[in-house]
Amino acid sequence: MRRLLETSLAALLLVAPLAGAAAESVVKAVEVEGNRRVEIDAIKAALSQKKGQPLDPDKVQKDIREVMKLGFFSDVVVESRGDPKAPTLVYRVVERPSVQEARVEGNEELSNDDLKEVLEVKPFSILDLTAVRKNVKKIQEKYIEKGYFLAEVGYRLEEKPDNQVVVVFTVNEHAKVQVRQVSFVGNAHVPKEDIVPYMQTQEGGFLAFLSSAGTYKEEAIQRDVQAVQAVYLERGYVNVKVGRPATSLSPDKRYIYISIPVEEGEQYHIGKIGFSGELLDKRPVLEGLLQTKPDELFVRSKIGHDLFAVGDIYRDMGYAYANVNPLTQLDEQKRILDLTFDVQPGQKVYFEKIEMTGNTRTRDKVIRRELRIYEGELFSATGIKLSKQRVTALGYFETVEISTKKGSADDKMVATVEVKERSTGTFQVGAGFSSYENFILTGQIAQNNFFGWGQTLSLSVQWSSIRQLGTIQFVEPYFFDSRWTFAFDIYATEALYANFTRRSLGGSMTWGYELSGLSWLFPWASHLDDLRLFATYTNEHVVVSSAISQLRLYNSFRSGTTSAIRFSLQYDKRDNRLFPTSGTYNMVSAEVAPPLLAPGALFGKDVNLFTRYSLDSRYYRPLFWGIVFRFKLTAGFIKPWDDQHPIPISERYYLGGINSVRGYRMLDLSPRLPAGTGFSGDSALALVNVGGNKELILNFELELPFLEKVGLRGVVFFDAGNAFMPGKWSDPNVGLSLYKSWGFGLRWFSPIGPLRFEWGIPLNRRRDPLSGLYYDNDIDFQFTIGNFF
Fold first, then answer.
1. What pLDDT, in 10s, does the model give residues 342-379?
2. Cα 721 to chain centroid, rounded
3. 687 vs 665: CA distance, rounded Å
4. What is residue 9's predicted lDDT score, i.e. its pLDDT?
């Protein structure tokens, strides 16, 4: 304030003597003094009083204000030097100090890293006391968020040479205040145990340090008042009143006690239900939508659902501004509430324009083809909801929002699809260690939104002591902007099974079609947006080598070419195809490798002929506290084409490993038969894995938030599965015919892709029949890159 008065006084001292001579004085020059960091040109650019102009005191006053507005100076003084008829104006400035350093003192419970994100005063910036005071408030809010309700935060400035200062934020943390007790006064009919779970504020306990339980936040308390009221409204107390919470501190100021007054009122039931307004002959439809029924208890959430459901009927007819109001009439004697839904549709509205924002990489058409709203067509609330779901399910965006605004006329509307893009490309070079694969090297270059076209292109390589894999894959979900899908992959693999080695070189080509495209022929097909039919042709040359005698496994260790076509039906309702947290995915397929696709003229006599059926079903459901439940069912059945072509051992089912039944050795859960251990007919017999012609796998998972900021989540799982011999559907060697395991792990959604680290514990450990020793580890660590579900 003193500086401001001095500046104003200096301006008045200058302007007063110049006022009379202004008309006959011409400015000879304009100079600036006192500046050290700020360029002269930057200051002069703010001046309106120029050289050669008549001296104007009003302009000088304005210049002082404009120079101060630059924010670099604490004082500006203007002097007139030389001949009064031709003065030289000198703007003498005093620069504000720069910040040499900003630090926090007194913080013991919160580290510098905890406070770094709220520390906005940066070194080398110009000192701004307003910003410093705002930072004080933010630091205090951070302490309150962590439960230090009584923390005191201030600041001091330490002057340094060369017009610099050190900003020191001083903290007196005091003790952490914990919510010791939440109580209610007047809750005669609803116990505390039924209310507290819906509140953000929770009582602290012995393990409160592991979560936010026990933390007191003023804004959370205000929201809790509404939460308490909502609990009562769900139970029919329509006149409930929740008062202002009272708080008190314990004498040692370590605990806070919260008391919430409640006036419950009386419980009401629903009486008559009716409709009024412009119903447009929709009364029968509306009556069938209602969850609220006469004579039932008043439940606010049901009425809220009914309001939206009734409104959506009209909004889906194009009445974008349809308004539905609940009109109520209370009978206090009978404790009955009569309810009338008053409908005012307004006028029909058309989409004039649909705009995209935020998609800097993704092309507009990739988003537009997922939309179920169209320019020139009537407004549709359901269309907006489906459009948001489908764009989100692409997995390319962190957030998707669809907003609307009035268009060029009352019956026109502009919809804006606003997205926030996420990284869809990965470059992975990794290494890991497994108890049975030993050292694992992996590398992958993948782009799930190739050049913003919505295509997938990936190149991956994996090497370990028992498997090597190289693959190139490409997927175009909308071939030439049609409903057709096109994909291909080329691969080379080598896998070391327990008793043989399988090497393969091949590729596949897939065509798919979204069945909603048949709506021109079958109108009901318009609802099949998430249902696709695929046809995949695979050509693969397989080489199998083994040291096991074929006396008991005659013609199983066969090499040859597989030429097969697979038809699959896929229904995908996941909320996100890359990182799903809710929804379902179901796929059934039938694969056939017949002689027709393997003519001898092209493939010779060594061909693999068979028929295979598969089922893949997945379920996702978010629970509470960020926990996601996942379930996966995998089933398969393969049978030979004829007696001359038994199922090759390399095509049979082998379970176990991180992508199957965790805790068991990779590809080691399999039926076993005695076979020779050498090539001679009298070689010793041993039990060898021969694979099954049927498989069943059940996977259950709970994925828990751990360190969300760095993309780290925990997982707890339970697996069960087995592969069965031909002609058998059970296994007497294990309970329920399924090998079971449980375990835990970590999932890191790293910048280079999802990494999985999991420890599996087998519940049905197997023994060697000769030695009697367990050959399943009691706990098995497994590592891989990529998603499981």
1. 999 999 999 999 999 999 889 999 999 999 999 999 99
2. 31
3. 16
4. 38
751: confidence class by pLDDT, cuts 50, 70, 90: low
Count Cα neighbours of 135 within 13 Å in the Cβ-side half-sphere: 25
Burial classification of residue 666, based on how many CB atoms lie within 10 Å of its CB (0-12 exposed, 13-18 middle, 19 or more buried)? buried
Instruction: Find all residues with CB under 8 Å of 662, minimum gap 6, and list them.
Output: 717, 719, 741, 743, 758, 760, 780, 782
Q: How far apart are CA 502 and CA 546, in angstroms?
A: 9
CA angle 599, 551, 641 (to 5 degrees): 30
DSSP class of residue 20?
T
- Whole-angstrom Cα distance, residue 556 to residue 692? 12
Nearest partner of 201 among 185, 187, 183, judged by Cα: 183
Q: What is the CA radius of gyration of the chain?
A: 37
d(CA 137, CA 207): 29
pTM of the model as a whole: 0.64
Closest to 80 (Cα-Cα) out of 102, 56, 103: 56
What's the mean per-residue pLDDT of the chain?
85
In order of their start, the domains of the chain are: 2-95 (3.10.20.310), 98-172 (3.10.20.310), 178-263 (3.10.20.310), 269-344 (3.10.20.310), 350-421 (3.10.20.310), 425-785 (2.40.160.50)
Buried-exposed string 90-100: b where 16+ CB fall within 10 A, e elsewhere: bbebbbbbbbb
